[in-house]
Write a structure and sequence with these properties.
The protein is built from 15 helices and 17 strands. It is of the alpha/beta class. The strands form 5 sheets. It has a 7-stranded mixed beta sheet with strand order 4-10-9-8-7-5-6, with helices on both faces. Strand 1 and strand 2 form a beta hairpin.
Length: about 475
């Protein structure tokens, strides 16, 4: 039986609040102007270590930085935290939004706001066209054969639950097997636990090796004809592991299993084409790719979506309704009952335009370099261990420091303007696999720089000194 709340972050130790923070706060001061981390690009210059060089030709770059400077493109990156310039290393949780996306939302509400599909007036027509244009834009972005293969949802979690309820409710039977991996986010685990409990199905798990990669050598013994669904993540949100999706989908297809890919961490960071991947279903969230919160999409092959019953009943998804029964529209509208997140879809389309103006391969190269550099620099810190592959990885690095719990470390870092995330990252089984309660995670996007990583290492070095004084809790010199 499933018990308890999910993804709950434990309270930071009260003693840390009472005692540690009194040492943290007094020395804090704003860094001198010559030490400021952002903005670091200046006209006709690029950041050192090649961090921005690959983005230099982007259409939106006007300053020679390869990207709009943070002061223009991403207004929030000009914020300060505790008197220090904000360094935002939490994009795996949610990305920041460029002004172009914010303006798209504002423009809709100021000029085109109306409900879609059900109105014959001018505003409704404009809103409908913008909403359906967003669907076409998503289809183009991921290589779907038709916009009808794109269902708008609130995000990855809702997309996966839609499949579990609609497809799983119809096709999973007692004794069937659902194959997952040990590295799955709770949103790609809990829905299948609930389905298996309800239907009498079994769950199997592909293990994760010590290097953070899937043990694909065991796949042949796990991916048997009893497996009806193989659901797995594209990029691990805790390890940064990039899984061989095309290979996994091909092996699943050979035994007749349906495949679902969680693309939450890959959708805005690398080239992605569902035809090349060969997946049956793919889920993602807009807020992790510069889009608004509360919008995402589920891709499904047309014949698969046609076979699925509705999962939410209401307006818009019906053809006709009598007191006795209803008939339903074809996908995707069959799965979009009620008023959708119109503005969110429009904002998502604007985010896609923004990302493609830079280039997803350029973003991937840039993010990978930041992650590699971070993992390399973390080896300089005593008692610090990074998780995940040593070679190619996604745009994040999770690590533990012997001197401090992840919650304490991220709270310490915040005092210097560094935003990271500490905890289990909705990956509790994976954390147990590696024998830790949680990690500190630094995650990146195209608006981050090598200089910010250098600053992070300075802050973490200061944390080592603070949490591991040689004799008692001695005073710590202020960090600029």
């Amino acid at each position: 039986m499933l018990v308890g709340r999910l993804c709950q972050t434990p309270t930071i130790d009260a003693a840390f609040h009472r005692n540690a923070l009194q040492f943290l706060r007094p020395p804090l001061r704003a860094a001198p102007s010559h030490e400021l981390i952002a903005p670091i690009c200046r006209p006709n210059q690029v950041a050192h270590r090649g961090g921005w060089s690959r983005l230099r030709g982007a259409q939106i770059g006007q300053q020679g930085c390869g990207l709009e400077s943070s002061s223009r493109g991403f207004p929030i990156l000009r914020e300060q935290a505790h008197g220090h310039p904000l360094i935002y290393f939490d994009s795996a949780a949610t990305s920041q939004k460029p002004r172009a996306v914010v303006e798209a939302l504002r423009n809709f509400y100021e000029h085109d706001n109306a409900n879609v599909h059900r109105g014959l007036h001018t505003l409704s027509g404009r809103a409908t066209e913008a909403y359906e244009h967003a669907r076409r834009r998503v289809a183009e972005y991921i290589g779907a054969t038709s916009p009808d293969e794109i269902i708008f949802t609130r995000g990855t979690t809702e997309s996966i639950n839609l499949v579990a309820q609609a497809w799983g409710g119809k096709f999973i039977r007692e004794g069937d097997v659902i194959l997952l991996t040990v590295m799955e986010h709770h949103s790609n685990l809990v829905p299948w636990q609930l389905l298996a409990e309800r239907k009498g199905a079994c769950l199997r798990f592909l293990p994760v090796g010590d290097d953070g990669t899937l043990d694909v050598d065991l796949l042949s013994s796990l991916l048997t004809p009893e497996v009806k669904l193989f659901a797995f993540t594209h990029i691990s949100n805790s390890l940064g592991t990039i899984n061989p999706v095309a290979e996994l989908c091909a092996k699943a297809r050979a035994v007749g299993a349906v495949t679902l890919v969680d693309a939450a961490q890959s959708i805005g960071h690398m080239p992605l084409d569902v035809q090349e991947l060969g997946c049956d279903l793919l889920a993602f969230s807009g807020h992790k790719m510069c889009g608004p919160t509360g919008i995402g999409a589920l891709y499904g092959r047309a014949e698969l979506l046609d076979s699925m019953p509705p999962w939410h009943g209401g307006g818009e998804m019906i053809v006709s309704v009598t007191l006795e029964k209803s008939t339903f529209k074809k996908p995707p509208h069959r799965f979009e009952g009620g008023t959708p997140n119109i503005a969110g879809a429009i904002g998502l389309a604007a985010a896609i335009d923004y990302i493609e103006s830079i280039g997803r391969q350029a973003i991937f190269d840039h993010d990978s370099e930041l992650a590699r550099y971070t993992a390399e620099r973390l080896t300089e810190l005593p008692g610090t261990r990074a998780f995940g592959p040593k070679e190619e990885r996604g745009a994040l690095v999770g690590f533990v420091m012997d001197a401090a719990h992840p919650h304490d470390l991220t709270t310490f870092a915040d005092q210097y303007g560094l935003a990271m995330r500490g905890g289990h990252h909705c990956n509790q089984p994976l954390m147990r696999r590696f024998g830790v309660s949680g990690t500190t995670r630094a995650s990146f996007y195209f608006y981050n720089t090598m200089e910010e990583i250098d600053r992070m290492i300075e802050i973490l070095q200061h944390a080592v000194r603070f949490f591991s004084p040689k004799e008692g809790r001695s005073p710590v010199r202020p960090l600029s």
